[in-house]
Design goal:
alpha+beta, Ribosomal Protein S5, domain 2, 4-stranded antiparallel sheet
Length: 359
């Protein structure tokens, strides 16, 4: 037996920090992702986990397969626990070898792709007991409950359901979705990696979630909602007097960002990429000023790009605090853009950024 599986990473085009507020997101799957090869192991009472991206290897006996280790192996182990919690025994005597071409900690969902490729493999090894949507939910729960990262469902959903040349318009409250074709009209999305790593479990991410929950609980005293993103901006403006300080800003970002995603979906369907780019710019400003999850590196890259000839829009993507920007630019300008942004960024921060043009 020698089985190989793949799950892609994703770049979120617009709609960050709306997923756990019951809102809309608009990610697209990348051609980059995580590959998993499963082969027999000489020892038939344990499993071995190795990665080409990390020197640490783990050989775990069946009774130790659900213990946390505080590193990359927790992602597949968390998924294994999801299966065992549902009465599905994980086959032992197997070597799980991971390799990937996603930059780690860059807001491109390397963790979700590890979880999803593990879920796909374990499902196959057990004769496919679960449908894809169930695997997505299990992968998310593994990251929430086992790893300790309180993420929404967007990353795992995009990794599981992504299609080439399409964005996924996903309602994170109902899980209704549609694939929206990306008619690029001579344009490209360029991903620029700041190389500033994000320790999300230890970062302000969980604090932002808590602030949104506090804002929701206050607003629920004055209106009948279950999620912040059930409000539109007109309704929010009528209720905003009940909030102040950071709670006001966090809620305003979530609700306004949800409105921008709706407008962005319409822009894609209307093939109006100019409007789409303007919405990207507005999204970055909101993430910077209201949600406060950017950083000097992200702000520099986005602002620099927004002034570059041929750029329609640029914004941070993902959870923030580091990671990447995504820029919508005319294809003929891509080579000059990546070269000049790379030089400008290195001069400013002394770090060589990474430019990714995904095909």
């Amino acid at each position: 037996m020698n089985l190989t599986f793949f799950a892609p990473g994703r770049v979120n085009l617009i709609g960050d920090h709306t997923d756990y507020n019951g809102g809309l997101v608009l990610p697209t799957a990348l051609s980059m992702g995580t590959y998993l090869t499963v082969t027999p192991l000489a020892e038939n009472d344990c499993c071995r986990f190795t990665s080409e991206n990390d020197a640490m290897a783990f050989t775990l006996r069946s009774d130790k397969l659900t213990q946390r280790h505080g590193c990359w192996v927790d992602y597949p182990i968390g998924v294994i626990k999801e299966f065992t919690d549902r009465g599905i025994a994980v086959p032992v005597g197997l070597h799980f070898h991971y390799r990937g071409d996603l930059p780690i900690g860059a807001s491109l969902s390397s963790s979700a792709s590890i979880e999803m490729v593990s879920a796909l493999a374990l499902n196959k090894l057990n004769n496919n007991p679960f449908p894809l949507l169930k695997l997505v939910k299990m992968a998310q729960h593994a990251e929430n409950d086992f790893v300790g990262m309180n993420c929404g469902i967007m990353d795992q959903f995009a990794s599981g359901f992504g299609q080439k040349n399409c964005a996924i318009a996903l309602d994170c409250n109902t899980l209704e979705y549609e694939h929206v074709p990306l008619d690029m009209q001579g344009l490209k999305f360029v991903i620029a990696n700041t190389k500033k790593k994000r320790g999300l479990v230890d970062s302000a991410y969980n604090q932002r979630r808590s602030e949104c929950q506090q804002a929701l609980e206050i607003l629920q005293q004055h209106c009948d909602i279950q999620e912040l993103c059930q409000l539109d901006m007109t309704q929010f403006q009528q209720l905003s007097a009940y909030l102040s300080g950071n709670l006001l800003k966090r809620a305003r970002h979530a609700i306004s960002e949800n409105e921008r995603v709706k407008q962005a979906i319409r822009a894609l369907k209307d093939k109006n990429m100019t409007v789409f780019g303007q919405l990207m710019n507005a999204s970055h400003a909101s993430l910077r000023d209201d949600y406060e999850v950017t950083c000097p590196e992200l702000d520099f890259m986005a602002a620099w790009a927004q002034q570059f000839k041929g750029v329609l829009g640029s914004r941070m993507t993902g959870a923030g605090f580091g990671g990447c920007t995504v820029t919508l630019i005319a294809e003929e300008q891509v080579e000059r853009f990546t070269e000049e942004l790379g030089k400008a960024y290195e001069e400013k921060f002394g770090v060589k950024g990474e430019m990714i043009v995904d095909n």
